Amino acid sequence: MTQVSYGPEGVDIRFPGWEATMAGRGFLRVPISALLSARVEPGWTSEILGMRSGLVVSGYRKLGTFTHPSGVRRLVSMKRGVPLLRLSTVRGETGFDEILLSTDDAHRIAQAIHRSAAR
What average pLDDT values come out for the chain (119 residues) when binned by 10 residues? Predict the structure, then answer.
């Protein structure tokens, strides 16, 4: 499963094993300067994400890059039943407008990002 952590430099995302192939990368660091917002959703989003490059197992797992017809580009690693961390980012720094990550640490990471932004 995708590993997500937050530290002084930003959000680190690791895609282990086969996930790296589907995500098109093994690692992505989202610097603090590129984070616009962070919020937690209870789980899987059913919104239309757009065209994909990656993997979709209907109703269970989505992993890869999704481009919505509106032009919004997302990096997605979602698994049903796990809280969803939704990061809005500066596309010029990350390559993505949003990053959607299923992680049990979603609440803790979002709170840490909000505390950092408040300083």
Answer: 94 96 95 95 86 91 95 96 97 97 97 83
